[in-house]
């Protein structure tokens, strides 16, 4: 673990624990009088939304309205529809309630209510001109870490794959992480969300290590491996490894749900400065072609990208192996690192993540185009501990088939 440089970007307030959703209304009251809740159709039908609305309106005297049409993978059209529908409402504060798409929708709606479009002018890093309207992020899955990150991802039909907007201005003002909100998350979604969270932590912990230039955090959202992201990443890895199997097997196990949610939040804090790497870079075109969930693609790819990175990241992977109990303190780094990769494969197999990209309908014919497209995620490719080119990505994809 490096000790010469560290960066953390985080919400002003982060509340964690069972029942903490009851703080949403009071938190919103600190930020304004008019509240827009961004959620999806499934959550809108659950009693929990009425409970939250009553807290905001009756107990805290605020005005609130709900957008409940968030779609998976967050298409651009849905963002624009929400902005058009609620611009006249002119909310002071926006609550994202749901999975990563709901939280990212809230971020991007806040951006477009604060500054002129088109949204495409903000694609990339550090292009948001200043603060956006305050956000309260309330996750109901344990995966993306969007409640604490400076990143929002969307699907633009003019782009081949999903695009990101990365800026510290998008970090929610308040994150409220209540594990009781995840108990209705089905086993399959729990598994792929957890795989995504683990990938965030592993990739941040093994990211490229850059010289500690004082200007770097002002010029790069993802600065690479650093002492503060390492701290959060190792905590996340330990929590997720210890509890994800239990959370998938028994959604009502609140202890396991709490551990996985805390791990996902720590993983978000880790990659919010440390960044992710080629498992995520490759998943973007894979997900665009197969129309499969982000966490599923990342879960399939992570062990293969760890294999590829082994020589460049053996010390980091060895530390992962030791913190999860897959390796002992006296084992050589390469042996301990291999044990960590084997443990990731075993965990993902146990929770139902397939071992091959063939399970999501990819074939050898897809590899050349996917290899080239993966390189377009430059900020992730540059963050990888080993040098990457289209041919090396093709080799990873061949093994993942």
From TrEMBL:
Q: Where is the Fe-containing alcohol dehydrogenase-like C-terminal domain?
A: 190-400
Q: Please name the InterPro entries in this protein's record.
A: ADH_Fe/GldA (IPR001670), ADH_Fe_C (IPR056798), ADH_Fe_CS (IPR018211), Alcohol_dehydrogenase_Fe (IPR039697)
Q: Which segments constitute the Alcohol dehydrogenase iron-type/glycerol dehydrogenase GldA domain?
A: 11-179
Gene3D superfamilies attached to this UniProt entry? 3.40.50.1970, Dehydroquinate synthase-like - alpha domain
The keyword Oxidoreductase belongs to this UniProt entry's keyword annotation: yes
Identify the keywords attached in UniProt to this record, alphabetized: Oxidoreductase
> Pfam families annotated for this entry?
ADH_Fe_C (PF25137), Fe-ADH (PF00465)
Q: What is its EC number?
A: 1.1.1.1
One MF term in the entry's GO annotations: alcohol dehydrogenase (NAD+) activity
List, alphabetically, the PANTHER family matched: ALCOHOL DEHYDROGENASE, HYDROXYACID-OXOACID TRANSHYDROGENASE, MITOCHONDRIAL
Indicate what this protein is called per its UniProt record.
Alcohol dehydrogenase
Species annotation: Pseudochelatococcus lubricantis
